[in-house]
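pasting input
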Amino acid sequence: MNKENKKVHTPLFTTFKRFDMPKWQGILIRVGAIAISIIISLIIAMIVCQGKPIDIAKFFFEGATIRPWKLFLDAAILLGFGMAILPAFKMRYWNMGANGQVLVGSLVSIIIMFYLKDFGMKSGFNNFLLLVFMFAGSLLASIIWAVIPAIFKTFFGTNETLFTLMMNYIASALVAYVNYVLAKGAKESPGVINMDTQTGWLHSPINEYFIPIVVIILVAVFIHIYMTKTKHGYEAIVLGDSINTARYVGMNTKKIMIRTLILSGAICGIIGFLFTSVINHSINTTTCGSLGFTAVLIAWLSNFNPLIMALVSFALAFLTLGTSKITASYQLGSNNLSSVIIGLIFFSILISEFFIRYKVKINIKRKEKEEPQKVEKVEPQEIETVKEEVK
Amino acid sequence: MKKLIKSLFALLMVAALALSVTACTTKNDDDEDGVGTFNENGELKDANVKIGLICLHDDSSTYDKNFINSMYRALNNLGIQRTSLELHTGVGEDSSCLEKARELAATCNVVFADSFGHEDFMIQAAKQFPNVNFCHATGTKAHTENLDNYSNAFASIYEGRYLAGVAAGLKLNEMIKDGKCTAETAVMGYVGAFPYAEVVSGYTSFYLGAKSVCPTVTMKVRYTNSWYDFDAEKAAAEALINTDKCVLISQHADSYGAPEACEAAKVPNITYNGSTVSKCPNTYVVSSKIDWTPYFEYMIKQTVKGEKIDTDWTGTIATGSVKLNTIGKKAPASGTQAKIDEVKAKLQNGSVKVFDCSTFTVGGVHLTEYLADVDDDGTFTGETNVIKTVNGVTFFDESSYRSAPYFDLRIDGITEINAAS
């Protein structure tokens, strides 16, 4: 009997859900955390660059704001990727394949742009038709790429995280292969397609950044309405909370899952089309960089709230451009400082979120035997609060 | 619904902010007449020139590090502060290159990009900012784009490889003499990156250099289809040694894969760019490299003076752009350095041509005419006859119609083991 009591393990830390924190206090903690991380970043930057803090700050703001359209475009693209994964994530379908889905969309519209350039050159209307074909092709390809893992999950119970990740590699290998074919094996890729004639290039009013920004803002508004105001969105959320509940109330879970992934794929298709027709006019295996994964961070950090996602995307784009200017102006020779600063700031935000949501109690070892039992009693309650939180 | 209206409003505010901030930005206008003068030592007097450098990877890549260090040397030679340089690394071969070029154009007088795939984006930026010079390494399109402010640059590295080939040939002669192989089994192996003209031109010049001193030599080529892949390069070198019975290896790829495989198998190795004498002391023979310092100095000087930069600039042994690293201590045959110096002098005075048509055959015939794909017009077919005869010597005139290599012939004596169709 005594032995058993000794074996009961007391964790050093116990976390409790907080209910008592006023809103202003939460905001203050967040602002404080960001401020501290910025100060630490500045100190690190000063050591690495051996520059004055005022110069570093100047470069940072100059880099971020010197070309505001570019800043908003970067933020919009991040937001677009975030929107692409949001419906699936709400459904607890971990779509790690946004990169691949955008890549195949962009790839198919590149192929159409390449082979139908003579058709598109004939007249303005033909060029418009070409753009329509490119858009349709991109949409279709991305939807197919997103739905394949969804079909396997619904019918064969495969793991979607691994499946979508693998689809990224297939997409990038396809891109390398198609580039090789389009360049007739003489070089790695044909480069920018139709650079002289600009056939299949979508020209924006105001400037080339305008259309992508506006389109992605519209997509974000649409997704927000879809998730909060429509039956389809609601069904996806119910499915995410509990698949058994969804089945019990008579929802067709397979249909919901595939339908939601069609939506995800369609958004990727839109981004892919924008990449081809407005932004890059070319494609390579690194076109998407790590945007599809950064989007996961943005979505989680924002608690899947589209408005906060927009703000976080903007902050990330701002940080990236600003720190890139610092590394360039001090000739650091790599972007590692940039990664460190962005990592630090996001880490501090995550930490502050944790302390705003949970209270941590440190269990100092005591000799009373009842102490461990108390902790055990807390646990079920805690799980419930976490569940509520997720809802 | 209230929340929805709120978020819509916020998004509108963001968009409005975007527009208002843009309205405030102004375009930078540089005067076309240059930005400074030089003193009698060739150093820049006024330090108001700004240089932008765009690199594909960061300084952990040997390829990009070579450009970065060359730029530092150039700045140092010209007496320009390092703060005049803005160095962007990790810039992909997509619109991010265009965006970086545009960003740099706002503050810099000259912008340079180092990777082949950057070219199309540099051209777009050059069209947008006619008062800023845009220069690009390894590109092929400057001579057809006809822009005053866009230029390509490369070096006649085939001359360096030819010299390295001479060292390889001498080593083979020594091995034949020592009975390690016979004249018939003197087979060299070559690890190439891609089957493109840049690589073909490189290995052919290497082969011809070896053949000039060891007439019976043949060569086998394996491609890795990557510019940097340690494992693939190592595997290719091992296959060349074990399967193809090659007795000497060279490579055109950027990792230590092939040199390490050679050191393990005790096979002499001729490397590219960096000397491997410290890592592979027993097998390192010699290596050739491109030094970009002379070009950077020229590019900055022309920009400062406000004069046009050559549309296609090809660095040579004479300009100091093509160099050989110090030869190895153990592996090279005796007399290697003397022979290299002798051939180097002949290359410089023009009495030896690397691609002398009398020294090689294609399909059993000596070339009298060949249409090379010099103009990169998207057709991938040859249009320019590049065979010339000067002073009775008929040769393939590499790198004179444009700076980037266009020698893509497969000559007799070289076998490609795994070429794609």
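fyi Residues 109 and 134 of chain A are 4 Å apart (CA to CA).
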